[in-house]
Amino acid sequence: MKTKILIVFAVFTSFFSCKNEVKEEVKPIVENSKATEVQLIQFHTEHRCVTCNNIEKLSKETIKGNDAISFVLYNVDDEKNAKVAEQFEATGTSLYLYNSKTKEIKDLTEMAFMYAKNEGEKFKTELQKEISEFK
Fold first, then answer.
1. How far is it, in rounded angstroms, from Cα 15 to Cα 100?
2. What is the β-pairing status of strands 38-44 and 105-107?
3. Among candidates 39, 44, 46, 42, which has minimal Cα distance to 69?
4. 39 and 88 Cβ atoms separated by less than 8 Å
5. Which residues on adjacent β-strands are paired with residue 72?
6. Within 10 Å of residue 102's Cβ, how many Cβ atoms?
7. DSSP code per residue over 36-101
8. What's the pTM?
């Protein structure tokens, strides 16, 4: 049963996942740091669940002290973020690595949802691995 749920989730997220390139420059709204070339971008909706909040918390903890990457948070329900959400095809909670110079995107949404709720250390390990491979 759990395998079927994961398969359905994977199909669902791949259907709504982002394209591999962004056509226009993303102007990030950066929280608590300066804009960097590599950004960890989280999209969320107005009403946030426990998992969404954990994704934000764990993401910030993972990159804390890493000046080479900034954390960017966008509310997809806020009209001022509509263009960026459209560029990433984000309609709800999602997590991406983005290189503003090369326009490369890595969708981390599936990993984030898989580990954020109950496996915080695994989330951090996997996110750090993705960041290392992305650079």
1. 24
2. unpaired
3. 39
4. no
5. 30, 41
6. 10
7. -SEEEEEEE-SS--HHHHHHHHHHHHHHTT-TTEEEEEEETTSGGGHHHHHHHT--SSEEEEEETT
8. 0.73
Which residue type occupies 101?
Answer: K
The two three-digit tokens of residue 61, written as one number: 């903890």
Ramachandran class of 32: left when φ > 0, alpha when ψ lies in -120 to 50, beta otherwise: left
- Contacts within 8 Å (CB) and 24+ apart, 125-131: 127/40, 127/58, 127/59, 127/62, 128/62, 130/97, 130/106, 131/38, 131/40, 131/62, 131/63, 131/66, 131/69, 131/97
| Bridge partners (DSSP) listed for residue 70 | 39
Per-residue pLDDT of 52-103, as tens digits, reads 999 999 999 999 999 999 999 999 999 999 999 999 999 899 999 999 899 9
Supply 101's token pair.
Answer: 């110079």
Q: How many CB atoms lie within 10 A of CB 77?
A: 15
Q: Using one digit for the tens of pLDDT, what is the confidence trace for 117-133?
A: 888 899 999 999 999 99
What are the pLDDT digits (tens) for 16-66? 444 333 434 444 444 434 568 899 999 999 999 899 999 999 999 999 999
